[in-house]
Amino acid sequence: MVKFGQQLTENRASVYPPDAYIDYEKLKTIIKQLGKKKLARIDSTLREVSLTAPPPTNAAGRQLTADDSPVTEEDFYSCIDAQLAKVESFTLEQVTKLRADIAAVETDVDALPFGSTSQSKDEIRAKADEVAHSFLVLEKYVNINFMGFHKILKKHDKNSPAHQCKQFYINRIHNQAWVRGDYSDVVVKLSSIYSALRQDHTAEENKDASQSFLRSTTKYWVRTEDVSKVKYAVLKHLPVFLQKTATGESDSQLTNSVYFDNDQLELYHGRLDKIPGAIAYRLRWYGSGDPSMVFVERKTHRDTWTGEASVKERFIIDESEVKDVLNDNYDIDAKREEKLKKKGTTQAEVEEWETLVREMIQVVQAKQLVPTMRTQYMRTAFQIPFDATVRISLDTNLCLISERGYDTEGGTKWYRDPTVPLLDNEITRFPHAVLEVKLELGGNSSEPPQWVTELQNSGMLYEVHKFSKFIHGCATLLPEYVRNVPYWVDDASIRDSILRSGGGRILVSADHPTGVGPGANEIYDHLLPFGNVKDPKLTAKGRTATTATMIEQKPKTAAVSQFYADANLTDEETLQGCCEDTCSGWLFPFCSGFNDEQLAPTSVQKIEPKIFLANERTFLHWLHAGVTLYTIAAGILAFASESNSVAAHWYAMALLPIALGFCLYALHVFLWRAEKIRTRVPGRWDDPRGPILLGSILTGVLCINFALKCKEIHMFNESMAHEL
Description:
The protein has 724 residues and is of the alpha+beta class. The protein contains 20 helices and 14 strands. The chain has helices at 4-10, 24-36, 73-110, 118-159, 166-174, 177-180, 184-198, 227-235, 266-273, 322-326, 332-340, 347-367, 450-456, 469-477, 495-500, 572-578, 584-587, 610-639, 646-679, 690-723; strands spanning 211-222, 240-241, 253-261, 279-286, 293-300, 311-318, 370-382, 390-402, 427-429, 433-440, 462-463, 550-553, 560-562, 598-599. Strands 1-6-5-4-3-7-8-10 form an 8-stranded antiparallel β-barrel, surrounded by 4 helices. A 3-stranded antiparallel beta sheet has the order 13-12-14, with no helix packed on it. Residues 548-602 have low confidence and may be disordered.
């Protein structure tokens, strides 16, 4: 393991002076000197002192507070304070410079004439890229110093247990401007600059109160240290989209969603098991403070193999109407007449809205739904306004809050009083940011743009198949009510957050032989982005379903281990040619693209139920071909003439091993593909080499037999000609 002092030296930015960083070696030297001192313990129970009595002494007659060492604890505290002030001052200085640089770029954008050349835009874009790069360098500077203070304070408390101070200083650091400060205005301004250079056009707003979405959504975890990098990678292609209720001073806004369920957590288990038609029911509002406009939303799961897509439906109400909706007192008829009077509203739209409202009110009463779980986070949305073709959202500071344990007062209260402190088992803080890539289904939008694919292959995204905030919150905060838990709870990176929230009963013990719970994780443990408690991989790079798998190759010259995500492979044929995992590697290692250890991406292959029967049908077809060849060979051996049977016997004996090869290959492919279907590892499930190999051998034998028969006919014709 690399020591932090060396790590600090290696990660210093060349544009910053070395003395701008924490003086880690100086602080470590002070700690070593303090660790050599062995002071007698002072009686901490004394509550009174005398100004005239001499201080207490030890067995040697020396004062307990006497110290011959030139270094004291006060020296360490003074040095820490000076280092904190230095880092804070340098950070604020750099932020001020960055804001001035951004203002200069904004001036250049405003002065850009209409119809300007692409060269002028490229020059301004280069300046914006330079500012963005400087901001990322500054964030890395903050992170490395923040880690340095954590490390040195931990070392101090370990060497001086009688003078522990880490918790005090950590709380103090979190309240300082260089850590607590929100510099998201830099992101907003950069987004505006790139948007102006792209000349983004605002789409027409959909003002229909009943809104439905057909989207393909993929979710990823993002490390906190990579959040700014991901934001920058996205805003170069999509602008930051703020809701109308946002102040515009930040790139993110507070989002609250209260999920409803019954005492049996029927909706939770339906969503977890992915039952067709399973719903999630929630009330959502945006912005801080009490809600004013509330979105009543229903998400319905559909299996894609049926030809249907999951859908989200919602309608908008005022906060004062929430109680009526939950208690089935909502005046639908009056609202219907009110909507019909609105200009531009059609009869079909109103009828669709009415159907949705009646269904959602009915489900609350039929399933006895009550507030169960609340998700709260700061959401940054990247989207061309009112254009949902490609939308990316990044949720940070994710908190999951239990909505059980208080009186709802007949639906009047449907979320916790924010002024009442929460217990540890009523809130869990998720350690990662959550990125969602949403694509509008249909047309040319079913495939992500190239830049989205590049982001997925950047190593900063950790795909978590079917991750759900609602499911994670219920499993963590309501462990006594759940029968099953999601697979990702075994991930090593979120284990501590679950334990702090009292959800330890859903986790396996640290000394568990496999490190994962029973059930799916015993098969799909490759889905855990950071490994399990038995085999943690906290420093692993991000992998997604579109990322080429991590392959450990061992060439003749040297051992190389790398992610293909870092290889910048853009040619699909090159990627397939270097990492095709075919079944040939089992039986014919020399025919496989590679024969090395492979770690699957953090996703699973979608399969249809009929694929099991298709695998069996393919097996029977291959087996039928082998039996047919064997029958032909046996017939030749049985009916070949005794007088001229040498060639026929050799031909039959050549067909017999080929027939056996067909049968063995059929069995091998069937078992190999069945394992692929069971584990659902993404990749190629076909074998492009085996059929070619067997077909070539069979073709060769047939050609040889054809050539021999032609020669035999030719010789027979010559002999007949001589006789005539």
